[in-house]
Design a protein that fits this description.
The protein has 91 residues and is mostly helical. It has a single domain, classed as Serine Threonine Protein Phosphatase 5, Tetratricopeptide repeat. It is 80% helix and 0% strand. Helix 2 runs parallel beside helix 4. The chain is globular and about 35 Å long.
Length: 91
């Protein structure tokens, strides 16, 4: 992501998410963070609806663990808002 190689980031985050879900479970904070990061990568490649859905799930899970104002939740909520803006502009 930091190198702006978004298609590659999508591929790597997809694999990482599958690994985390298998090893630590779908509700673990690391899994949720990777899910949200994959959602952000999806936004960058134009998969806005999918990205928003992943980030919403990540934000909800992280809020349940760390509270609604935690940095990870705030980050994904901001990205969700960005995705919604992108979707409106595309219409």
């Amino acid at each position: 992501m930091n190198a702006a190689r978004y298609p590659e980031a999508v591929s790597q985050y997809t694999q990482l998410l599958a690994d985390y879900e298998r090893v630590v479970g779908p509700r673990d904070s690391l899994t949720l963070s990777v899910r949200g990061a994959l959602g952000e990568a999806y936004l960058e490649v134009g998969r806005i609806a999918e990205g928003t859905e992943l980030m919403e799930a990540a934000a909800a899970g992280l809020a349940a663990i760390f509270g609604p104002d935690s940095p990870g939740v705030t980050r994904f909520r901001e990205s969700i808002d960005e995705g919604r803006t992108m979707r409106r502009m595309a219409l």
